[in-house]
Design brief:
The complex is a heterodimer of chains A (about 110) and B (about 110). With about 110 residues, chain A is mainly β. Chain A contains no helices and 11 strands. In chain A, strands 2, 4, 5, 9, 10 and 11 form a 6-stranded mixed β-sheet that branches. Chain A has a 5-stranded antiparallel β-sheet with strand order 1-3-8-7-6, with no helix packed on it. The radius of gyration of chain A is 13 Å and the shape is globular. Chain B is mainly β and about 110 residues long. In chain B, strands 2, 4, 5, 6, 9, 10 and 11 form a 7-stranded mixed β-sheet that branches. Classes of the chains: A mainly beta (about 110), B mainly beta (about 110). Chains A and B meet through strand 4, strand 5 and strand 9 of A and strand 5, strand 9 and strand 10 of B.
Chain lengths: ~110, ~110
Amino acid sequence: GQQLNQSPQSMFIQEGEDVSMNCTSSSIFNTWLWYKQDPGEGPVLLIALYKAGELTSNGRLTAQFGITRKDSFLNISASIPSDVGIYFCAGSGAGSYQLTFGKGTKLSVIP
Amino acid sequence: NAGVTQTPKFRVLKTGQSMTLLCAQDMNHEYMYWYRQDPGMGLRLIHYSVGEGTTAKGEVPDGYNVSRLKKQNFLLGLESAAPSQTSVYFCASSSQGLEQYFGPGTRLTVT
């Protein structure tokens, strides 16, 4: 089946720093999504990408759909304490109703 | 507008007992999904539905059954619970199968 490799697995950053994380797939995806999960909560959709090369922002978050269609990137600028959580990438192939999820990047922000 | 709700929030079962998890959505979404989340494993799809009266198997369907008798509800059943089914269960819904919106989760422990 499809596999997503998400990296890094975890990261500790100082408040105010920028953050980058990425996701790579063993196969081509037509859709990339990025979610954030707070402890004890369900994942919340942050950004959806539908086109290779697409760059989309949501406040301080920016995500890109890689031109090979096998990767995606999420950047967070000027991190704040409430950015703490687990960030998941998810992808879907052509004509699929299913998402494949990465294993997550756990972000810790040091005030 | 409650979005996606799940009941119960917590449950403890003994091995061999049965139970049903209820997911309800008020967004008139066609697609609904059940996932399980285990530490370090990300989210794995158990079963899904593309409309009222339909169900299909996901990545890890064994030991679970589902029903979608009404568009707004999606039930997940465990007929004979096993310790390996200890997990956090998330329901999600989507209007077109890609941007999925998650409920708050049910934490199940099987002893």
